[in-house]
Amino acid sequence: MNAAAQTEGHRAAQEIRSQPETWAAASIEIGRRAADGLPELTAFADVVFTGCGSTHYLAQWAAAHTRALHGIPATAVPASELYLNLETWVPRSPALLVAISRSAKTTETARAVGAFQDRGLGEVTLVTCAPEEPLAADAMWVLGTPSAMEETVPQTRSFTSMMLALSWLLAVAPDAGVIDAIAAEGRRLLSAFADGLPAAADPNTAYTFLGTGPRWGLASEAMLKIKEMSLSPSEAFQSLEFRHGPISTVTAQSLVVGLTPSTGVETELAVLDDVAELGAATALVGPGAEALAAGRHTPVAFDPELPVPWRDVLYLPAIHQTALAAATTKGLDPDRPSNLQAVVILDD
Fold it and tell me: Which terminal residue of the chain, N or C, has fewer Cβ atoms less than 10 Å from its own Cβ?
């Protein structure tokens, strides 16, 4: 029985494979909300993105794109760090706080929003799959994607759908057909990597994900998905940083995955080449990856003509499938990872 067949009984498999359809539904939801107006990022002295776990990594992705696309200060901060050390992370006002929470119930995120508003530092935008929750009432703007809410603990379709919601905030609305084209690419990737990357069949694989710029946050999220769902050793590094110590851990049971842009990747590819020479398996995920991999690395390629930041959701489906396959290979339940809850709610 192949890995795809083994995963069929798990809700996580259905949620992962529903992403292209969910993106289409979420885009309609977001577009309706965006029609009522969104904050103008350049109107603020500072933009702070916050979340916990997966949504903190999503915040890293969004902050990097904000700096690149708009040339304004933007920071990603874990919600717990924000409410404990608010003045350290919000030095300028008026600021825009973009709180990201799948459930809109996470205690640290609610506390961060409350502390920010109590100090009168600016306005709040909430990105969530639960726009009906009370936290939404505290926000000036709400980008909700309820169609993407999951029953399982790990964030997969909710993460990528909230990426699309943030894309509406980061860039102008996409041209007609963009979301359909991205969904088509998503379906192709999910089919091509139905069993995940080949290394997922080995329960002893140790995973490393590399990325720079906005892809650093996505590499961190990829690391977390593998760790949550399969309990496998998994790490993330900024691409060239891997040579500064972590490369010492590479063995024949390592899989090192580079998340790359479509151009200017020579130095990042050189890291993967070094790793391959040490005997590790390697993969390259990104627009035009097939040509860039040049037969040296497993390519996970998508159309480089799709626009940034919308196309970035395509970095993750093959990795989601890899985490799912790795979990079932080890006889684990990817729907309910060990020691985790879907929402962290703390006592007062």
Answer: C
